[in-house]
Specification:
The protein has 265 residues and is mostly helical. The protein has 2 domains: 76 residues, Glutaredoxin (3-Layer(aba) Sandwich); 112 residues, Glutathione S-transferase Yfyf (Class Pi), Chain A, domain 2. The protein has 11 helices and 4 strands, in the order E-H-E-H-E-E-H-H-H-H-H-H-H-H-H. Strands 2-1-3-4 form a 4-stranded mixed beta sheet, with helices on one face. Helix 1 links the parallel strand 1 and strand 2. The longest helix has 22 residues.
Amino acid sequence: MSNRPIVHHIPVCPFCQRLEILLALKGQRDAVEFRVVDITKPRDPELLAKTRGTTALPVLELPDGRILKESLVILGYLDETIPGEPVRRSDAYEHAVESMLIAKEGPFTGAGYMFVMNQDRARRDEHNEKIIKLYRDLNDFLMEHNPEGTFLFESFGLAEAVFTPMFMRFWFLDYYEDFELPAGPAYDRVRAWREACLEHEAAQQVSQEEIVKYYYDYAKGSGNGALPEGRSVSSFTFEPDWPSRPWPPRDKYAVSATDAELGLV
């Protein structure tokens, strides 16, 4: 049995990246053992027994065998138990503000994933406007609580650890949907926040190229290792590794690349 907590994870998963960012902020990357799960294959029965049949990742396995699920729960647990400066705000009011911002992540994430998975070109503008509206809401929140700052507070914290992986995954919207955040004061504050999050040294676990290549199947409407029609290899496969693959076609509505065109065989 490992004497360190074990995180069962997918390397490119945003919810798993949150934990990596937290550990990087604390300078404690090796405090947790990461074990990779291949979502293109059926789950290991031993892991399913530990999770009581659920397949969502990440999963934290404690040295005594107890299991914790849900990335935000695991994030809070590791922040409290791993040595180092706490990432969450210590002041009660500031932590409440931080929590209010984090509560906005769910709808934001859902809108982004629904947008990239949409297969109806006629609904593109509808999805685009929804995500832009959510960016406006984030802008308003940041303007209310720290209008002259860069992050929510003076430094990269828990809210940033939660949102940054989603900002990175939404590179798939830039690539497959030609998404651009509009110019103007309604977006300037959130734009600055997003850019600072993307550039932060604790959040460099993945690249735009890696995300665009792995998430091609999402852009074709198939998530979590499912296969688009006519394909036999998931874009989430580990072999061949993503650096050796060509960039996927950007037009997800009119083009359906084959396994060979994606460099998967």
